[in-house]
Amino acid sequence: MRRQIFQLKVSLADVTPPVWRRVLVPGGYTLDRVHRLFQCVLGWQDCHLHSFDIDGSQYGEPDPEGELTLRDELDTRLDAVATKGGRFLYTYDFGDWWEHEVTVEDAFGADPEERYPLCSAGEGACPPEDVGGPFGYRQFLAALADPGHPEHESMRGWLGRSFDPSVFDPGRATTLARWLS
């Protein structure tokens, strides 16, 4: 029997220009590995808490202080919670609240000639960490785009590198995903 592969489309909610990725993920991945994969292909740096909301159940890293009621993502495989045509949410950074809509576009047997995981497509650069969620990201882009904007220089200095919201390289994302997940 061939391994089952899930084709997931991960879309960052409430941002323009659009940011999304299409990934092929082994069904045997636990949700903690799916989290690491999403971090890689989206461009996040895994500096904040996260959770999955799947069919009304919350999954993530158990909270030792018991403030968050989460099922342990280490104990849950993707193929146990994902179904073709299904949807779920992945939230990253509970302060900035980056919500990702995940669509299970397909499920099929693994191609023995292919290596997984694989980022097959995508669009848009990931927003910088700690930019302030979707609202802060809109302000950030407006400031960067206008040299006359009062925050232009401070935003450029804060980021410390160039930023093009349209740039995405699926080959680089796949390389990182295979290395880190």
UniProtKB/TrEMBL annotation:
Gene3D superfamilies: MM3350-like (3.10.290.30)
InterPro entries for this protein: MM3350-like_sf, Plasmid_pRiA4b_Orf3-like
Pfam families in UniProt: PRiA4_ORF3
Domain Plasmid pRiA4b Orf3-like: 4-170
Endpoints of the signal sequence: none
Designated name of the protein: Plasmid pRiA4b Orf3-like domain-containing protein
